Amino acid sequence: MIVARKNYNNAIENHQQYEEKKVKKKKVKRSYRFEKIVLGIGVITVLSLSLMLLTRFAAVTEVRHRVNHLNKQLEQLETQKEHLRIEVERVSKSRWIEKEAIERLSMQYPLPEQVLYIHVDPTEIAKLSHQLQSNQEQLDFKNSSNNIFGETLNRFLGFFRI
After folding, report:
1. Where are the alpha helices (DSSP H) in the chain?
2. Which residues in 68-82 are b (16+ Cβ under 10 Å) and which e?
């Protein structure tokens, strides 16, 4: 009987150990929550980096488009400038001016009796130019003294504006 009891006790202990292992196996059930979070963050990071790269490419494309548009506009302005330069050369020619004056404005050369000659004494010119220079110097002196007073007043008032 002792042997049967030992076998029975061993069987009960084995059964208890088996049930404890079952319980432990159920408790060991692994949760993948951390891995899911890391994977989600990785996917979001990759998507955000891809979106950022895509927006940068869009910005670069837009800038290239603007540069091309400005280059075309520059070419148009250069051709317009060249046409205007040609027009200025054509207009500055005296033959063209004479032709336009006669045809469009009905102008004609003056007759000899329409021409007036004025004789001016060189000493009179020298006197007048000397007077003009002295008058100009007096005006410059007055303006400079007024400017100094005005600047001083503005600086003084500027301290109070702060």
Report:
1. 2-27, 33-92, 94-103, 122-161
2. eeeeeeeeeeeeeee
Residue 47 lies in a domain: yes
State how far the Cα of 68 lies from the Cα of 77, in Å rounded to an integer: 14
Q: Tens digit of pLDDT for each residue in 70-100?
A: 999 999 999 999 999 988 888 777 788 888 8
Please state, in angstroms and as integers, the Cα–Cα distance from residue 58 to each residue in 45, 62, 64, 67, 146, following that order.
20, 6, 10, 14, 60
Please check whether residue 60 lies inside any domain of the structure. Answer: yes
Both 40 and 79 in one domain: the answer is yes
Q: Indicate whether 126 belongs to any domain.
A: yes
Taken in order 139, 143, 145, 146, is the CA torsion positive or negative? Answer: positive
User: How much is the pTM?
Assistant: 0.38
